[in-house]
Structure formats: C-alpha cells, structure tokens
Design goal:
104 residues, 3 helices
Amino acid sequence: MRKLSLVLVALVAVLMVASPAYAQGTGGATPTTPWSVPIGIGLGMGLAAGLAGLGQGRVAGAVAEALARNPGARPGIQLALFIGLAFIESLVLFTFVLLYINTR
C-alpha cells in the first residue's frame, strides 16, 4: 500500500508540473519550448526504460527457473524468451518514438 501511495504522489507531482507548462503565455510571437518538456521526456523515458529493465529481469529469472526444472524444453522456452524480450523492448522504443513526436 505504501508503494502505491508513493507512486500516486509522484504521478500527481508530475501532472502538476506539466499543467502550467502548456498555459498560454503573456504574448510574444516567438515559439519557445517550455522548460518542463525536456524534464517530462527524461522522466517518461527513464520510467519506461526502468520498468522494462525490471520486466526483462523477471522474464530472465522465470526462464532460468523453467530451464532448471525442465532442460528438455529448452527450444520452446528459448523461443518464448526471445519473443517476450522483443515485446518488452519494443514498448520502450515506442515510448521513445512517442516522446520524440510530442516534442515536435
């Protein structure tokens, strides 16, 4: 429960920082990048990469345990490992692309 409340507080803090960044300025025709955009991109990419790393670690641990229990099923387990890792890594790449698109 403590972790959930910590995550919710962090989420609220990030949303409170992002909200004023998109408010209308006092004038001026020169478009500028708000200071919170690079911070948000860094936080978003860090969060995506960190959680993907945790997921890949759990997948690798489960594969090691499965191979220890049944070494004869190695080809099927190895195929599932590579497909799972590719999906996890593709989520990080999609996050990177979406964050890059949103800055343009």
